[in-house]
Amino acid sequence: MKKILFLFLFITTTLTAQDDLKIRDFFWGKDDPHSKSNTIPEKWKNESAVVIYKYEFHDYHKFGTKVNYTSALRNRIKLLDDAAVKEFSEFTFKERFSSDKGWSRRAGKNTLGIKVVKPNGKETIINVSKEAVNADKEKMIAIPNLEIGDIIDYYLHSEEPFISQLEMGFEPVERTLGSVYPTMDYKLIFQTENDFFLNFATYNGAPELKEIPSNKGGERHYEFTAKDIEKNDFPRWFYPLVELPCYKFQVFFARSGKFEKRADAFLSDKEKIVKSKVSKEDVFNYYDSKFKPYGDLGPVEKFLKGKSFSSDEEKIREVYYFTRHKFFTQYVEAFVVNDAKIFYPFSLYQNPIFFQKEEEFINYFMAFLKDNKISYDIVIGTARYNGSITDLLIQQNVTILLRINTKNPIYLEFFTPFSSADQFNEQLENTQAYLLQVSKNKKIVDAELIKLPGSTKNDNISKSITKVKLGEDLATIAIERENSYSGHYKPSEQSNKLYFFDYVYEDYKKYNTETLLERVSNKKKREQYQKEFDALIAKYKEKQKENFISSVKEEFGHDVEEYKMTLENSGRFGSKEPMVYKESFTIKDQYLKKAGNNIIFELGKFLTSQIELTEKEKNRKNNIYMSFPRQIQHEIQFEIPQGYTATGLEKFNKKEENETGGFISTITQNGNVITIKTSKSYNNYYEPNANWKKMYDFLEDAYQFTQEKILLKKN
Q1: What is the rounded distance in angstroms from the CA atom of residue 587 to the CA atom of residue 593?
Q2: pLDDT value at position 162?
Q3: Which helix (H) or strand (E) holds 283?
Q4: 398-404 and 410-413 as β-strands: parallel, antiparallel, unpaired?
Q5: Of 376, 487, 493, 481, which is closest to residue 437 (Cα–Cα)?
């Protein structure tokens, strides 16, 4: 048995080594046209690094029910400074992985190859299999003796086999042509065959995809090439896919017409046709039969029984929040308990219905609206950072809304624990979208382009009132703060601050529904489960507090002590209703400096998180894209310690306003209390680069505010 096992291992090892040599020869063999490419253009000699050659390869093939996806990436890079040397001195990769595609989990393999070319032309191939070490479920390899002027030439080859009889999409790719380094030569290759559909499009001046004639029937080869690609900057407030030369692609597998119709993709009529444009008609045809009024309205009817509403708008909002609980938050506890392996909870529910997809939500609300004879339409939009809806290519980039045609139209989006009626994803605001018109609340009959409404800086407000007081030791600062968030500021803050127990039990109380453990009829088991669940929640609460402290520490840049937080309002039941919470903590030995008997106090530091622009940012060349117009309001109340007077207050009066936004601060003193009020606003979703100087002016004022100090003079 040992001999047979040894022979098997020997054969397996030999085959693996042979495969690795074949892969190496594929990239670095005698036909490699870039084996001697060692020089770079003079214009790029001051860059951190230059990509001499970049090559990508994607191959999609099937063998009966077996599907094989092979991908590869090669980069040949000249390193020109210490930062680049550090960047490429270490590689991590997964050697083996389990495919997440299809229905059969088969082992996939990654093969990494690395060689270093010295300025004199000497090549050293790194023995990856020998030198790589295990590091947290990955392989890690350090590249020794890497220096400025070296070329590092590496490839990563991936084989991913799986079993699939149904339709399925490969992960879409959306990428700018240029990266952080300039590129001399770039080539992207696709190889597909029958049953594989390719969606591929280029934008903003990128080259077109070319088909290369194939000698084998049913096989297709495509090539995308570009040369002399300048590097890209990716500054804050910028959407690269909107402006920079880029490409997007996705491959979809469907064995027959039946599967093509079920595909979650905008497919071409034939595999041999590359889909590069999705028309209004394509969108209409795809969604024409996707939605239909469907669902048991019994729970909603029971909820509405005996209730009266001032308008259909009020009724729709209340039904939205109820269904969010009924078909979503009601089951959150069950998922937590199941993941923690306390017990299997789902059998406690009779016919549990948990909405997991937009389609389920849309269908159910269509049924409700139809039953109540309320007119509605379906909106197909895409996030602003994807580009225009008229350039839509990838179906996963679609977000679906319901527009309820009440006197004041209501837009509804698939719910999260923190979603609001009347408010949808900020990335869809003020964009073009397709409106699918629904006739008689039943059938989609047409599609047209519309512009979705936007919000203003007065809709999206972050507000805080901070009370600052020095301790008797004149070294400890006690801080009490009330934070309020409305509009689009609210969902992210709710997600950061509210754990499941914060909102699930709020919903149970509001709708008078049973908690998960109240459903357990066996008293002994219920007590046992409750004990385990309480222990789990206690751990979550401990982690929650650690996160809160970490967040404040990051905001102020210093350790904080004695942290407490109380939630005043979750803000989960109305778009106009703010989320409010209070917190208190202390900071020691910071912001205070003795000057004889006097104290210099950095009061401006309590306007936290202001942007300090670098010289590179000041010379920005890109246009500016904002998630949403917004306003940040702060009030700082400082109690002057007894026996001191404050001077230098006038520096806190600042004003810089223009059409892009502004920063205004005012300071007043009443007795021993100094009050500073500040307001910073961003007025628009977009600003041309010509307006950058106007934004820069008020951003500088806001940052300068944080550097201002007052002098506390001893009386």
Answers
A1: 14
A2: 86
A3: helix 280-287
A4: antiparallel
A5: 376
Residue 105 — very low, low, confident or very high, per pLDDT cuts 50/70/90?
low
Give the largest Cα separation in the chain, rounded: 94
Integer Cα distance of 367 and 391 in angstroms: 32
Q: Which residues pair with 697 in a beta bridge?
A: none
- 647 token code pair: 């001077």
pLDDT at 357 over 80: yes
Q: How many CB atoms lie within 10 A of CB 181?
A: 23
Three-state DSSP at 499 gives coil
**387: three-class secondary structure by DSSP:** coil
The whole-number average pLDDT for the span 220-246 is 95
| Range 406-423 average pLDDT | 95
* Residue in the block written with tokens 């042509």: 177
CATH architecture of 595-715: Sandwich (2.60)
Q: Report the 10 Å Cβ neighbour count for 256.
A: 9
User: Using 50, 70 and 90 to split pLDDT, how confident is the model at 15?
Assistant: very low
How many whole angstroms separate alpha carbon 608 and alpha carbon 604?
8
Q: Are 231 and 180 in contact (CB under 8 A)?
A: yes
What is the spatial distance between Cα 401 and Cα 378, in angstroms, rounded to a whole number? 6
Q: Cβ distance 402 to 414 under 8 Å? A: no
Quote the pLDDT of residue 10: 40
- CATH architecture for residues 39-250: Sandwich (2.60)
User: String of b and e for 16-35 (b: at least 16 CB within 10 Å)?
Assistant: eeeebeebbebbbeeebebb
**Distance between start and end Cα atoms, the chain:** 94
User: Given the structure tokens 């269908």, which residue do they identify?
Assistant: 363
The values of phi and psi at residue 444, to 5°, are -75, 125
**For all residues of the chain together, what is the average pLDDT?**
92
Q: Which residues, other chains included, contact 361 with Cβ-Cβ below 8 Å and sequence gap of 6+?
A: 327, 355, 414, 415
648 has a pLDDT exceeding 90: yes
pLDDT of residue 233: 87
- The rounded distance, in Å, linking the Cα atoms of 463 and 643 is 32
The residue assigned the tokens 């002098």 is 711
Cite the beta strand spans of 495-626 per DSSP E: 561-569, 579-588, 592-595, 598-601, 624-625
> pLDDT per residue over 28-53, tens digit each?
998 899 999 999 999 999 999 999 99
Q: pTM (2 decimals)? A: 0.90
Q: Where are the domains of the chain?
A: 39-250, 298-451, 484-590, 595-715
Q: Which two tokens stand for residue 602?
A: 């950095």
Cβ(231)–Cβ(181) under 8 Å? yes
Give the span between the Cα atoms of 423 and 411, in whole angstroms.
Answer: 7
Q: How many other CB atoms sit within 10 Å of the CB of residue 123?
A: 12
Binning pLDDT at 50, 70 and 90, where does residue 8 land? very low
Strand, helix or coil for residue 125: strand
pLDDT band at 442 (very low <50, low <70, confident <90, very high): low
Q: What is the mean pLDDT of residues 167-185?
A: 93
- Distances in Å between the Cα of 123 and the Cα atoms of 28, 76, 150, 185 are 12, 13, 10, 21
